Amino acid sequence: AQKITQTQPGMFVQEKEAVTLDCTYDTSDPSYGLFWYKQPSSGEMIFLIYQGSYDQQNATEGRYSLNFQKARKSANLVISASQLGDSAMYFCAMREANQAGTALIFGKGTTLSVSS
Amino acid sequence: NAGVTQTPKFQVLKTGQSMTLQCAQDMNHNSMYWYRQDPGMGLRLIYYSASEGTTDKGEVPNGYNVSRLNKREFSLRLESAAPSQTSVYFCASSEDQGRFSTTGYTFGSGTRLTVV
Predict the structure, then answer these.
(1) What is the model's pLDDT at position B1?
(2) Concatenated DSSP letters of chain B
(3) Does A104 contact B102 at a Cβ distance shorter than 8 Å?
(4) Which of A73-82, B38-47, B92-101 has the lowest mean pLDDT?
(5) For residue B105, which residues of chain A lie inside 8 Å, CB to CB?
(6) What is the Cα–Cα distance from B104 to A42, expressed in whole angstroms?
(7) Span A50-75, average pLDDT
(8) Is A32 touching B (CB cutoff 8 A)?
(9) Are A16 and A116 in contact (CB under 8 A)?
(10) Residue B97's pLDDT is what?
């Protein structure tokens, strides 16, 4: 079974609009972290935002926020006031357990296209 | 600039040839990783090294070997390249200290490998 599921292969939004990128995850570990990365067409991987499983509040970083619904195992990324530079591939990822011997598990990604 | 350096950036191999992808980080991170990225598949873990002197298999280790040469360097070797290994390879590192880092990974810029 997939640990991280991103059901939207592609999303389209106009500048200045908000957009939500979906991510659901599957784990039995009570301690885990959820991450979002951006990959522009140039190919580099850019860390955007982190949410810990015990965090009471949703994470925010500038125009990025994470809508964390623990009971639904959902960690959607919300981008407010979209900009042309937000056009990229976005990956949701999860890391389980309180130990160093694990690694990030990635979803298949969502391509976001922002138009003017 | 501090970060993760991968070499080469591009490589074309013939089926059956061998090569080593080099990765070095200068952030004194404990953990290092190799991922491959294929269209529609997201990033899949090949091997990782939680600390100097240790390596572990990830999701797709077949056809690859790794060496954690020292704390800075983590190389990936293809002994007999196959067309199925055509992919973009990313090296990453993280500052895990017992518990995983909440700032995610630092990624290299990637190696685009084509096997013909």
Answers:
(1) 62
(2) --SEEEE-SEEEE-TT--EEEEEEE-S--SEEEEEEEETTTEEEEEEEESSTT--EE-S--TTEEEEE-SSSBEEEEESS--GGG-EEEEEEEE--BSB--TT-PEE---EEEEE-
(3) no
(4) B92-101
(5) 45, 47, 104
(6) 20
(7) 95
(8) no
(9) no
(10) 64
